[in-house]
Write a structure and sequence with these properties.
By secondary structure, the chain is mostly helical. Among the domains are: 51 residues; 68 residues. It contains nine helices and no strands. Helix 3 runs antiparallel to helix 4 and helix 4 packs antiparallel against helix 5. It starts with a helix and ends with a helix.
């Protein structure tokens, strides 16, 4: 690796700065451990040491562990009565997993399995911790787009139709769930309806007209 001296200097400088900030925090008072935030940020320059393929995998794992540890520490220090760390565990695990799998993480099979796992995970958290409000509808709506975009990427009209249906269903359920006395979902429904219509009239219809014109000329 080129510029090993420079990269080592950056890493050592970041580490020394983090140690200095932690020492200042301990000397001035430990009522609030603020040094953990800049210290975690100072981990970013270490990415320069792991830019190659194998190093990137190792780096993603280390950063995921550091991020999870930071969140766990904050959870324990500030809100020990509510384990919100559980909400960040899934993306913290999924990130390194996708890096280790490489191109295999871009397949439809992986997208379907990962999306199903994430939806089930957050649905379980919703039922166990916040059963009074079904917020899992938001995470479910977001994660469904991952496999949907891969399965229908080469079928724009089908993708637009299914995607519009998903958006309309989402806003309709959200409307009924939050403010059933006010029917506001009609506004995003009207807007989204133009997506498949525009694909049909400006992509498919011109092509059909062109084919028809060519057939007329041949005859």
């Amino acid at each position: 690796m080129k510029n090993n001296g420079l990269l080592g200097f950056i890493a050592l400088g970041s580490m020394m700065t983090a140690v200095f900030l932690i020492a200042v925090n301990l000397v001035t008072g430990f009522s609030h451990f603020w040094a953990i935030y800049p210290s975690a940020f100072l981990m970013c320059p270490f990415v320069l040491l792991f830019y190659h393929d194998k190093g990137l995998k190792f780096f993603s794992l280390i950063i995921s562990l550091v991020f999870t540890g930071l969140c766990a520490f904050q959870n324990f220090m500030e809100t020990p009565g509510y384990p919100w760390i559980l909400y960040v565990l899934a993306p913290a695990v999924l990130g390194p997993l996708m890096v280790f799998l490489g191109r295999r993480s871009l397949t439809r099979k992986f997208a379907s399995a990962a999306a199903s796992g994430l939806i089930s995970y957050y649905l379980a958290l919703n039922i166990f911790f916040e059963s009074g409000y079904p917020w899992a509808i938001f995470t479910t709506f977001a994660f469904l787009w991952w496999p949907l975009s891969l399965f229908l990427a080469r079928k724009p009209l089908t993708f637009a139709s299914v995607g519009s249906g998903l958006i309309i269903l989402f806003f309709s359920v959200l409307n009924e769930m939050t403010t059933p006395e006010t029917i506001w979902a009609i506004y995003p429904v009207f807007l989204v309806a133009w997506w498949p219509l525009s694909i049909f009239y400006f992509v498919y219809c011109p092509g059909k007209r062109a084919v028809g014109t060519m057939n007329m000329k041949k005859s």
